[in-house]
Design a protein that fits this description.
single chain, 184 residues, alpha+beta, Peroxidase, domain 1, 2 domains, four-stranded mixed β-sheet, 9 helices, CF(1)
Length: 184
Amino acid sequence: MRGTRAAQRYAKAILSLAKDKNAADAVHQDMQSIANTVLKSKELEDMLTSPVIRNSLKKSTLLEIFKDLNGVTIGALDILLENGRISILHLVARQYIIKYNELNKVQEAVVTTAVPLDAKLESVILEKVKELTGFAASLKNVIDENIIGGFILRIGDLQYDASVSRNLTRLKRELKDNTYVSKV
C-alpha cells in the first residue's frame, strides 16, 4: 500500500513525542477516532486526498469533525499538512495504534462471527486470549454470515477456525474421498 513506510515513520515520531509529553493515551484515543472515521467516510478520505482543496480548509474541516483533539495530535495534523502528507492520515493513525499496542503489550484479536457478540461473550473471549497468549488484547468483531455459525479467532499470525462452514467443507472433503460413500 502506498505511503505505508512514511506512515510508520510519522507514527513512530508521534508516539515518541506523545510519550515525552505524557499524552500517549490521549493521542491513542484521537488516532482511534481518526482511523475509524476516515475508514467509514469515503467523502472525508476524498477530501484529504484532493489536491484541489486547500490545506487551510482541510485543517479546519478536521478540527471541526474531531473536536477536543490533544495538542500532540493537532501538531501531527499540522506537520502532515505542511509536508503534503495529509492524504495518509488514516495510515498514520492505524500505524500509531499498532505501535501504541506494541508498546503496551496489547494485541488485537479479530473475531469473525455470523452474528454480533454480546458483552458477556466478548469478556470471555478476551480472558481466553489473555490466558493463551499471556497478553491483554483489544477485540474487534467482524460479522460474516457466510461462516454460518461458530467463530474464527485471529490473534496476530495465529488463527483458530471453529466455524460451521469450515466443518462442513472438511466433512464434504472427507465424504468425497471416502471409498465407501463414493461408490454409493
